[in-house]
Write the structure tokens for this entry.
Amino acid sequence: MSQKRFSLIRTLGIIFMITYIVFIAFPIYWQLNTSFKHIGEVRKIPPTFFPKHFTLSPYINVMNNPMARKSIYDSLIISITTTLLSVLIGSLAGYAFARYPKYAGGENLSFWMLSVRMFPPIVFILPFFFIFNNLGLTDTYFSLIVMYFTFNLPLSVWLMMMFFGDIPRELEEAAYVDGYKPFRAFFKVTLPLVLPGMVSVVMLCWIFAWNEFLFANVLVGTRVKTFPLVIPTFASGSSILWNQVMAFTVIAMLPPIILFIILRRYMIRGLSLGVVKG
Amino acid sequence: MARIRFENITKKFGKTVALKDVSFDVDDGEFFVLLGPSGAGKTTTLKLLAGLYKPTEGNIFINDKNVSEDPPYNRNVAMTFESYALYPHLTVFENIASPLKAPGRNIPSKEVKERVERVARMLKIDQLLDRKPAEASGGQKQRIALARTMVREPDIYLLDEPLSHLDAKIRYELRQEFHRLEALKGVTTVYVTHDYVEALSLGDRILMLDHGEVQQIGKPREIYEDPANIRVAKQVGQPDINIVECVTRVEGEKIVLMPKNEPTINIEISDEAQAAFRNNTYPEVLLGIRPQFIKVGEIPGSQIFDGRVDVYQVLGSEGVLNVEIGDLNLIALTSPEDRYTHGEEIKVYFLKDRFYFFSPENGERIRFS
């Protein structure tokens, strides 16, 4: 390939990347931009690309709103519990499917688990609402945790099954011969190698539970309220408090971002471990 | 220090039979080689010894104690894997120290450090201790795996194809190192390989395994000079032994062999062999001739054949000659100084005292005494 054509493709590539980044980053920029404006400036046309009168009042208003504060707390409880359960049970099941497929029920069972994901979630909403309602479980943490867990588990099992399947069995066998019992060998060899994969499962489960609106809207709403249910309350009959919506979503973005920063270390280690294999 | 006894071991994986009624003994301190082509069941045998597999039938004894059901962490055996099985997330030091840090061993960390460094120096990998296994070359990885095995002072060493992934030069060097390693000398070692040169070079005794069955157990010279069947004869020796399908025939007073795809010639055999074939006990036989026992030229008293040069390769220390006698294509070893060209007419004779005869039905050796 000639030098000229190569640089043309390169330039096009860079242009594409820049467009892509703008596409991804613009909503976040706009969210931040709006969250620091007074409501009057938000409604101005043409819009301002930087707050003329920088203000923290949307944040203060949101933080003083007890319903908004509690919703973050509720969302945290539900997401943390769901994620821990999904990853823990998904790892155990994934390990069993990867290492002992015959005893774990084989391909049929693992595939059947995945089939739960093939239905559109909305199919389950009414049946689940009636079940939970009859059991008196609506408007509880439990109902949403069970729901999210049900949807996260198949994904978690399948991903963990693949990550465990990628680790050569001989590494564990080497640990047994070295004198480690299966449980110790798991923590010495298998777990550290699967950790990067596990971290990505944590992120996926978290994001699903954290952002979910549909089930939350049907199953909870009075005593328990997750943050996506609070966002619509900023829209009153005549106006939408866009600056408060944005400020609230900025706050709601913080837990996943903090989680990602903590776990990033392991994800990067995972990338470098990939090179080792083979 | 340990004796091993394998007693009528059968191992099945589902319907696949990996080992069929395998029995053998290994003496204390012996260097015992399992030789066989891939898929023969060598690694299965090793993993049974390590306790990673449990036998379907039969019993395994270490020092007269039945360990058939014991898990690996309760047997004092050390094993290197063909894949090396180094822990990629740990440094070379941590890899080697792993068996010393296993629960229940309680070795003080100062001693762990000393022992790891000693074995690393011995295997010339002490400069790698702080690195990850991924940063080591193939030969170094091999030595790291070996170090992890040798750091332990176990009852038995199990070595699975430790040299197979290395290039020829390093393989030769490491083979010599194996001879020098004092640590290996006193300890019972079971060594798996598909390379007969390694087996002949290293083994006190060799077990030749094929299709999950024991073909022959013996000292290296016995395996090479006195193969029990055609599978052993083929596995041991390079270039491969020549096998000629023959019919036995009475020619006057004598019994001769007539090659099936070259009926115009009769191959004379030794007087001993004649006696054995006299009563038509074997209407057909497989004749085995090692390449070094086919010679170019003519000497008085031997049967001379007219041959034609097919392919000739000079390989440094020897020449490999494919010679055609009619439709028979045989491999002969020559001196590397010899020169032959394609199509050249030459005279060929066989050393008939060195013929092997095998039964065409089951490949077993036909013996005379």
